[in-house]
Automatic annotation (TrEMBL):
It comes from Gordonia westfalica. Signal peptide: none annotated. This is Helix-turn-helix transcriptional regulator. Keywords: DNA-binding, Transcription, Transcription regulation. Residues 109-174 form the HTH luxR-type domain.
């Protein structure tokens, strides 16, 4: 999918770029709900900037509404809205990075806009040490479900897809 986005962007096909970003958001709904909401917001911005694409957007609307409903149930309205609004504020380049369309996601473009909370930084450091969510929960005396939520938030805020990327990010911060 990321190669498709790169090609559509290179040949100036914003409708197909929006479709790809939106579909990636759908696919992330279960595994990374905040990231999914952010991607849906980014796709919405692409749609709005290119009014000639209304017909294409309406073809996806039914599935997108179902995914948004699922994400709101999973995240709660407030968290969904924050993630969605973050996505809407992204530039196209940042949206492409978040969608993974430019090779390895480069979250440094998002870094000035997002910062991790104190607890998210603690969780990220423990992820970098190789601890499981259950081990992190025990160490911080919080529930494993809360750790899951923190890890999801970290992944979303930094535009990552894996714990390995979190570990690399933490290690890079220690070096510089």
């Amino acid at each position: 999918m990321s190669t498709a986005i790169e090609l559509y962007a290179e040949f100036d096909h914003p409708g197909m770029v929006a479709v790809c970003i939106e579909v990636i958001g759908w696919c992330q709904a279960q595994s990374a709900p905040e990231r999914a909401a952010t991607l849906l917001g980014a796709a919405r911005t692409v749609w709005q900037r290119h009014s000639q694409l209304k017909l294409a957007q309406s073809a996806l609307a039914t599935v997108t509404r179902r995914v948004e409903t699922t994400l709101r149930q999973k995240l709660g309205n407030e968290t969904f809205d924050v993630a969605f609004d973050t996505g809407q504020a992204l530039t196209l380049d940042d949206a492409l990075r978040l969608a993974g369309a430019t090779g390895e996601p480069r979250p440094e473009a998002l870094a000035p806009r997002t910062t991790l909370t104190r607890r998210e930084n603690q969780v990220a450091a423990l992820v970098a040490e190789g601890l499981t969510n259950k081990e992190i929960a025990t160490k911080l005396t919080i529930s494993p479900r809360t750790v899951d939520a923190h890890v999801d938030h970290i992944l979303t805020k930094l535009g990552f897809r894996s714990r390995t990327q979190i570990a690399r990010w933490v290690s890079a911060g220690d070096d510089g």
